[in-house]
Amino acid sequence: MKPAAFDYVRPEHLDEALDVLRQEGGDARIIAGGQSLMAMLNMRLARPRTLIDIMRLPGLARIDAKADSITVGAGVRQATLLAWPDLSRSLQLIALALPWTGHAQTRSRGTVCGSIAHADPSAELPLVLQALGGEVHLRSAKRRRRVAAKDFFTGMMATARLDEELIEAVSFPAAQTRCAFREVARRHGDFAIVAAAVVKTAAGVRLAIGGVADMPVTRDFPSLEGSALEDALNAFAYELDARDDVHATARYRRDLVRMIGRDLVQEVMQ
Amino acid sequence: MSRLQAGGRHPVRFSLNGKPCAGDAEPRLLLTDFLRHQIGMTGVHVGCEHGVCGACTVSIDGSPARACLTLVAQVEGCEVRTVESLAPSAGRLGILQAAFKRNHALQCGFCTPGILMSLDCFLRDHPRPDEAAIRDFLSGHLCRCTGYTPIVRAALEAAAEIAGDVSREKSDA
User: Fold this and answer.
1) What was the pLDDT predicted at A78?
2) Where are the domains of chain B?
3) pLDDT of residue A75
4) Contact B140 A51 (CB under 8 A)
5) What pLDDT is attached to residue B173?
6) CB count, 10 Å around CB of A130?
7) Run of H or E including A199
């Protein structure tokens, strides 16, 4: 339960970090708060040759609120975003979901972008990024690009980020809309058995489910009620291809998707 | 840019319990192991080593954090506090520690240092917490002895005492 040996690099400028990534690619890993990566290192599920600590880079720990979007830099810790005074007004869904991310003792170190980079299928922040239709700002020594949340997550802990890229920030649309969030876990702060977010859209609602498929999955529904809603949720629950594991059976997960989905849809449609 | 080579030992400096602390460490050395084996702060307990149990929780720059999910290299220049900082002097207990003792909030004591450090940070930021807030905060710690009830009671008592609602000095006399 100790990490394998690695070089530890502490760049002073972003360009230096990007340079190391360009030279070492997949053998190097970015470490920010370390609340996911350190556990992987301790268990030797990850064995990078080089760790690049980005927490001392200037300018990355910024929350930038604009009229149409809120951008959260790679150095912003989860506790910092949770304590941001404008959070519930500007990003209500994050205000609802973030208290479920880990525990106070891990949110104090863990970063918002780090959780999205880690892309755990049961994590709340990737789910919220999907539900709100946010963007991931990627940067390499050569170029910058933005990837929509729906294209960023590609599978179990897998993303569209290239080896020479790092996540510089993530952004969430600032549009105010009704939303709701609920999660079922064995203990508050444990990995979600099912996490669900619902956002009202022009045509109806968008439902995002985490903890069931190998990544968070969203689905847009028109305004439905009664048995039509139940049928649509049931079909969605089966499409997620739930598996049995030590925490819950596939059937229990489908039950939760149907039940929580219905409750949350009704909550935002009221 | 500094690069600490794998395998080599590199100097690290930070503040530990209010005093300067320096040592040499490999890049991969965890804060838990540095504090226990190099400094002798054995109040930092090692439970699961992947951030779940909370036994290794220390204060880093005033916030509770898992020492097992932190490299000692990451705390360069930071302020770290461990359970050894809580007692005001040898042979005396801090307010929170005394409340734990009165309420039997520990049995085997393995989880206790982590919980004390967490609560010490929490009570500083939340001077009058209710039971629900304390229980929510304690969800980041595993205790297999007490069932948590005496821990919650001790935390509430300590909070009241710190806030000046009761004087333990008088009621114990």
Assistant:
1) 98
2) 10-85, 95-164
3) 98
4) no
5) 39
6) 23
7) strand A194-200
CB contact under 8 A, A5 and B28: yes
Contact A229, A247 (CB under 8 A): no
Whether the full predicted model's pTM is greater than 0.80, yes or no, is yes
Query: What CATH number does the domain located at B10-85 have?
Result: 3.10.20.30
- Cβ–Cβ below 8 Å for A105 and B7: no
Q: Number of CB pairs < 8 Å for A and B?
A: 109
Residue A5, CA distances (Å) to A42, B4, B131 in order: 11, 11, 44
Distance separating alpha carbons of residues B70 and B91, to the nearest angstrom: 31
**Superfamily of the domain at B95-164:** [2Fe-2S]-binding domain (1.10.150.120)
* Coil vs helix vs strand at A17: helix
Q: List the single residue in B with minimal CA-CA distance to A11.
A: B1
Question: What's the mean pLDDT when you consider all of chain B?
Answer: 95
Nearest chain B residue (CA) to A10: B2
CA-CA distance, B101 to A59, in Å (whole number)?
46
CB contact under 8 A, B66 and A35: yes
The interface pTM score, or ipTM, of the predicted complex is 0.93
Say whether residue B33 is in contact with chain A using an 8 A CB cutoff: yes
